[in-house]
Structure formats: C-alpha cells, structure tokens
Amino acid sequence: MDRILNPPVPVTIPEPAQREVSIPKNIPWGVRRQMLEAEDRERAKLMKNAPVPIEDLEKEMDIVAKEREG
C-alpha cells in the first residue's frame, strides 16, 4: 500500500563538474613562443590548403592579360 500511495523517487546522481583547464597567467616566454609558432604554422597550413575564390583568379587573369597587351 505504501508503494502505491508514495511511489519511490528515483535517485539521481549529480555528475561531477568538469574541471576547466586553466592556463597560468605567467607563461614563460619560451613556452609562449612555442604556442604562438604552433598557431602560426597551423594558420599557414590552413591558408595553403584553402581553396582560392574563382573571382580572385578571374581578376588576376584579367590583370595579367592587360599587362601583356599593354
């Protein structure tokens, strides 16, 4: 009878809060330089592999054609 009148409440287990990785405010210059260089290498890699818009190529072709004519 107790089960019908007072159904059991499912127990919820709270998930542990995720710890944020904190970057120390005082980063040594050598480490900071390595981080910046790695970011720059990644950017350069992405720019190298990025597709060139067709409009830019067409403009460049027109410029080259005009230089050849002139």
User: How many E strands?
Assistant: 0
Helix/strand/pairing class, anyone? mainly alpha
Radius of gyration: 30 Å
Main β-sheet: number of strands, strand sense, barrel status? none
Tally of separate helices: 3
- The overall pLDDT, averaged over residues, is 78
Order of helices and strands: HHH
What is the molecular shape? Answer: elongated
Q: State the distance separating the first and last CA atoms.
A: 100 Å
Helix content: 55-70%
| Poorly predicted tracts of residues | none
What fraction of the residues are assigned to beta strands by DSSP?
A: under 5%
Give a verbal description of the structure:
The chain is an all-alpha fold. It has a domain at about 30-50. About 60% of the residues lie in helices and about 0% in strands. The protein has helices at about 1-5, 30-50, 55-70. The protein starts with a helix and ends with a helix. The mean pLDDT is about 80.
Which features does this protein show?
3 helices; mainly alpha; 70 residues; elongated
List the helices and strands and how they pair.
Elements: H1 2-5, H2 29-49, H3 54-69
Summarize the structure.
The protein has a domain at 28-52. The protein has three helices and no strands. The protein has helices spanning 2-5, 29-49, 54-69.
